[in-house]
């Protein structure tokens, strides 16, 4: 039977909003959300918004700026977004040893973002909803959980 590790909100080390520092291409990021929104802006060649995202201090501000990326289109984003989130989280966990251990400790489980409001990156259900216990009754895609599960499994193989 499939076992799950549920997470939600910025207090979880698996959250995109979890505060931690890591460096990619000489830029310091304060959370994986900042990296994701920065990479989103670069993907659509919006350098100005990318720089604003680097200066933004909170994930809420970073996400708001990410929503304003010029030239954005769903097709391009959906093609690349999971790779972007994978790369950002790879750096986040490899550069923060205590977080890496927490990720590796989930071995044998599928990570699940128990967000009742997110049906793309999460499952559209809260952790206390009984439907979350069965993949067949999820209301969302769980892209973040899938990315983190794949990242963990890849790191365990390295």
UniProtKB/TrEMBL annotation:
<protein>
    <submittedName>
        <fullName>GTP cyclohydrolase</fullName>
    </submittedName>
</protein>
<dbReference type="InterPro" id="IPR012816">
    <property type="entry name" value="NADAR"/>
</dbReference>
<feature type="domain" description="NADAR">
    <location>
        <begin position="6"/>
        <end position="155"/>
    </location>
</feature>
<dbReference type="Pfam" id="PF08719">
    <property type="entry name" value="NADAR"/>
</dbReference>
<keyword id="KW-0378">Hydrolase</keyword>
<dbReference type="GO" id="GO:0016787">
    <property type="term" value="F:hydrolase activity"/>
</dbReference>
<dbReference type="InterPro" id="IPR037238">
    <property type="entry name" value="YbiA-like_sf"/>
</dbReference>
